[in-house]
Amino acid sequence: MQNFAEYLEQCRYQTDALADKVTQQLFQENYFHSFNEQIKCIHTNQALDFSKFPKYVQTYFKETMILPDWADTKKMQVGSEFFNRNADNIILLLSFLSLPYCYANASGSKVLSYSQRIANQTQKRLYETAQFVFHVTSDNAFEKNGAGFICIQKVRLMHATIRYYINKSNRWDTLQLGEPVNQEDLAMTHLSFSFIVLQGLRKIGVSVSKKEADAYLHLWKVISFLLGVDKELLPDNELEAQKLDLLIQQRQFKKSDEGIALCHALFAFLEKSMQEAANPLARVKGFVSSYARFVLGEKLADLLAIPAASWSGENIAYFLKLSNGFQDIFSTSKPSKGGKDILNMIYKTEGKTDFSLPIR
Q1: Does the global pTM surpass 0.85?
Q2: Cα(33)–Cα(27) distance, rounded to whole angstroms?
Q3: Buried b (16+ CB within 10 A) or exposed e, 106-135
Q4: In angstroms, rounded to a whole number, what is the distance separating the alpha carbons of residues 138 and 218?
Q5: What average pLDDT does the segment 335-353 reach?
Q6: Which pLDDT tens digit goes with each residue over 233-243?
Q7: For residues 89 and 198, what is the distance between their CA atoms, to the nearest angstrom?
Q8: Domain map of the chain by residue range?
Q9: Is 308 left (phi over 0), alpha (psi -120 to 50) or beta?
Q10: Element (H, E) at 148
Q11: How far is residue 307 from each of residues 232, 263, 310, 320, measured CA to CA in Å?
């Protein structure tokens, strides 16, 4: 464990050399803004026309549009089917569990606070996150008519662009904080979408078999590898994921002004969204903070200064049994299978996001 802790410390100074190199060239050649406008219009893997880009951009797209040789497509399909069956719960766990979990990382929250991607445009950025998850976990994500590859390629460049801006600002203490959007923080984000979601599902009463858990972890291992995360940081099973989660929490999770502010902005948005909820129980004051404490646990909730729960864990569990789980918490009508109605009702956004690169 100690040796791996030392490895994680090294990972704080490692980023994504491939995406960083492309991003730096885009800026050096004054091509960034033009490139950004071009990729906004690309929504599927097959819509990507390599020929209209410079050679170094073509190389990036070609090298990152191939599944790793260790990817088990049958296992990935099982993982995709698991997501489809649980999409409504998973998408909403992103707001109540995955994002707050990331905000508990004090150093990582400084990056998010700097980029202002959550605090200033909460609704749009939450929709982007949820839409990304839908694209990369769909059964055709990595086929020509899917959108998995292109979404991952855009997000990878988005991370590199944020690093570029932060490092150019001369306001970042690399020695103390590590590189912005570094490998350890990317590993933590990977856990938030995979292992932490599995934990959250079980917490709210969803049965998850070992086969389903292993398949979902494998699907996200492939996704995160394509996002530029070191394979050594991507667990193969829940036991490995649990050990990594514990170690990262011990190293990086602490109370921070940035994390608290990000969580406050998120929950303020959720509270506002719930005013139109069809289920009257969901409109009871204190539900958001109570539910967050239920799925996060008291330790992480305290780090984020989430208000004390006004609902007991027993009452929340009882509510879930009475209702249709997360679907009834926010919906104004019966959601369709797969969670996309839930997505639109909560985030009030129709259609596709373009995953454009941030502009300074």
Answers
A1: yes
A2: 9
A3: bbbbbbbbbbebbbeebeebbbbbbbbbbb
A4: 14
A5: 51
A6: 999 999 999 99
A7: 11
A8: 2-255
A9: beta
A10: helix 148-169
A11: 37, 11, 9, 21
